[in-house]
Amino acid sequence: MSDLEERDQRYVWHPFTQMSDWMDGRPIVIEKGEGNYLIDTAGNRYFDGISSMWVNLHGHDHPTIRRAIHEQLDRIAHSTLLGLAGVPSIELAEKLVGIAPEGLTRVFFSDNGSTAVEVALKLAYQYWQQKSPAEPKRQRFIALKDAYHGDTLGAVAVGGIEHFHQTFGPLVFPVLRAENAHCYRCPYGLTHPSCEIHCLESMESLLAEHGDEVAGVVVEPLIQAAAGMIPLPDGWLRRVRELCDQHETLLIVDEVATGFGRTGKMFACEHEGVTPDLFAVAKGMTAGFLPLAATLATEEIFNAFLAPVKNQQQFFHGHSYTGNALGCAATLANLEVFEQEAVLERVQGTIQVLTEELESLRRLNCVGDIRQRGLMVGVELVADRNTKQPFPPQDRIGHLVCLAIRRRGIILRPLGDTVVVMPPLSVTVEEIRSLVAALHESILEVVGT
Ligand SMILES: *Cc1c(COP(=O)(O)O)cnc(C)c1O
User: Fold this and answer.
1) How many structural domains comprise the chain?
2) Pocket of ligand 1 (CB under 6 A)
3) Are residues 294 and 418 in the same domain?
4) 90 and 31 inside one domain
5) Does residue 449 surpass a pLDDT of 90?
6) What is the whole-number distance in angstroms between the Cα of residue 115 and the centre of ligand 1?
7) The 250-254 sheet, strands edge to edge
8) Average pLDDT along the chain
9) Residue 426: φ, ψ to 5°
10) Residue 265 C-alpha to ligand 1 middle, in angstroms?
């Protein structure tokens, strides 16, 4: 083992990782990035099949973004937004309001997806306390089964993935939990579209029962990503917007995973013409270069925080690196790349090819379901395709498949036995073909059928 590998195992505590298992293995130590590839200290190249945990959009060395960061660095790396304004955060806030769903007019910066959601929850909560007339009873949130909104405590509270969130249950505020739309394993035994999205009745009855206590409904739009890439059927998000309107509560949309082109449009909300009241973005925001996040709000919400200073009605929240200048410069450059390279037009063809290529995986008996929204894909492996019986979790089939494809020069990471494929938007048709072929081989190698 190399010196760096040993020192990693000695000092670095990796996220979501059983460290005894980690220390049994040999870490790949990444040193460089070239386009869609990661290069380790031994010089091995790996295709970045999960966009470095869903953040990278245009490859690792895009010249426009690198140049923008360098130029900003020559001016200043960071100054605070507490008591001061900054050039790149002004320019970016204006740009974001321009591209976000219409009606979102104010931008609150933070530095990761969890904090963007945390900010949205606190804004919603405080909004009801001090809007006029106030509705102080609105203190509860509705969130979905299998939801993932991040790892800080507020985000954990609205999260609904048992094995991530259960441990911290006693520590977080209770939420009203609505049924999600898990079409592959529909608990009602129905199919879309003839089901008419029957599962939303669960949210409807929560709102009917608790409507006047609900501060907001928090959802991931179009697809529940960390849940295992579970798409929400067409029309689902629009219905949720209607339900929120009927019950006069806020819709909080978490676009941390879906934002910035992942689903084939700049934002997932655009597919359904929905404007949320609060809107969280992060991951793809800087194209994967720097940590930055934002929570956008409507003018209506913003106005509820306006008052004479003595009333103490401002939003009491902020982070040291809020509105970081390098991050904002990277994001401005990211948006420039979207325009200059017509990324959203180009990616339509890429998504189509990915859909077609993935079809070939259905020849494998253990492929239970292939779920896709744009460049977000989950391939669920099952022990029995007819009964949808999962593999025993201790067999770690998803993990083994990802190790097998790694030996073929591709980095993937599973969610249980769902293999996630989330390449950068800059993925080429050839790269898609070789990725899917390698995935096919890897599944065969591990499962044999
Ligand atoms: C990743 C993710 C988050 C959390 O973002 P971090 O930057 O990891 O804190 C929140 N919501 C969704 C939908 C995500 O996919």
Assistant:
1) 2
2) 112-114, 117, 148-150, 220, 225-226, 254, 256-257, 282-283
3) no
4) no
5) no
6) 9
7) 104-110, 293-298, 278-281, 250-254, 214-219, 140-144, 176-178
8) 97
9) -85, 10
10) 19
CATH number at residue 275: 3.40.640.10
Co-location of 237 and 259 in the same domain:
yes
305 CA to centre of ligand 1 in angstroms: 26
Which of 307, 340, 373 is the last residue in one of the domains? 340
Ligand 1 mutation target, pool 16, 256, 373, 413, most atoms within 8 A of CB? 256
Instruction: Identify the domain containing residue 366 by its residue range.
Output: 3-58+342-447
pLDDT at 93: 98
* Residue 163 pLDDT class (50, 70, 90 cuts): confident
The CATH number given to whatever domain includes residue 382 is 3.90.1150.10
pTM over 0.70: yes
Is the pLDDT score of 4 beyond 90?
yes
